[in-house]
Amino acid sequence: MIPVRVLGLVVDARMQPVVLLTPLDGDDGHRTLVPIWVGNQEAASISIAVNGEDAPRPLAHDLMQRLLRAVGATLDRVDVTRIEEGTFYAELSLTTPNGHLRIDCRPSDGIALACRVGAPLFVAEAVLADAGVLEDDGEGAEPEEEAEEKVAEFRRFLDEVDPEDFQG
Length: 168
What we know:
Elements: E1 2-11, E2 17-23, E3 32-37, H1 40-50, H2 60-70, E4 74-84, E5 87-96, E6 99-105, H3 107-117, E7 121-123, H4 125-131, E8 133-134, H5 144-160
Parallel strand pairs: 4-7
Antiparallel strand pairs: 1-2, 1-7, 2-3, 3-8, 4-5, 5-6
Helix pairs in contact: 1-3, 2-3
């Protein structure tokens, strides 16, 4: 498993949110990115956690964090374990009063929860090999202004999201 961090959130050409993970030791001049497409609500939740903000009402991942605390469990790590037919899979690694548990989850949920509790994120080497892409070094790369505009566009989306969108 390779330790990673959330580099940021962007939107693709179809306006779908993408969370970008990158290895912690990726300072060799060419950073590897693992793009994982997520839903709008999960993207908003990840963004809130990454930016250290609070939602006006608890989101599902806030509830997960509170439940873990209430039962005396801790999230030790989140592992993105595999990719099958374009779908990523992940597991939560928990320590509970009754022992260690591994629980299947969507990567977006695991990332949002890890960002809230400060748990480390990992990606399997096979996932990095299959889904990882080298960040362009500027030749043929998207101009920085375009990338910044996409990030700004996603932030506008987050600013305009109605809290009712998160009600079940």
